[in-house]
Amino acid sequence: MMKHIITITFFLYFFNTSYGQFSGGSGGGADIGGLSSPETFDLPVELTAFTLTANENGTVDLSWETATEINNKHFEIEKSKDAKHWLVIHTEQGAGNSNVSIKYSFTDQNTTVGTSYYRLRQVDFDGQYSYSNVLLYQNGESSTSPLYTYPNPFQDHFVITGDEVEIETLRLFNTSGKEISFQKNGSIDNMKEIDLSGHPKGIYYYKTRNLSGRIIKR
């Protein structure tokens, strides 16, 4: 059976509920926990892989693996159609404390044609939590692009995530082909918040070392 697989390797970053989240514009941005955390903490979980597999029967397999776990109560798989409103579709019990590799998996039986976003929310026994990167399922297949932009359309801000080398070379252009300036925020190399609050609504084109695409500001 043919399967379309995308694997992203990264580390979960710690997020304490007493600190704020980034919100990408009023009513139109994506809430991505941890981008603006003002302090550095010990990582409770080291997540070494997060994999999305789109099957021919329409289901989606999600797999992840941890190298170490500290105070890990459980994982929640969250799903969204717009990268803004998230719904918990599965809860998986964690190992608590572990220093050996552990593999987890879940199959989403309720998929639809179109775009779906998936992420992990890791919860400690003390209520603190972390978010993973985001995986994209689009038009019945997992995306193999090393870059994702969401939400699209966006308001003042959008998030770009994926290959850190590509993100480092990001350039933006308007419909006239003029390169525009922008602010790139976030301490995580493979996830950045792009601020276009000072630019008018419309279509913008992005270009990196090897990739290009389009994103719309509304």
TrEMBL record:
Occurrences of domain Secretion system C-terminal sorting (ranges): 150-217
Pfam families named in the record: Por_Secre_tail
InterPro entries in the cross-refs: Ig-like_fold, Secre_tail
Protein name, as recorded: T9SS type A sorting domain-containing protein
Organism encoding this protein: Flammeovirga agarivorans
Source taxonomy: Bacteria, Pseudomonadati, Bacteroidota, Cytophagia, Cytophagales
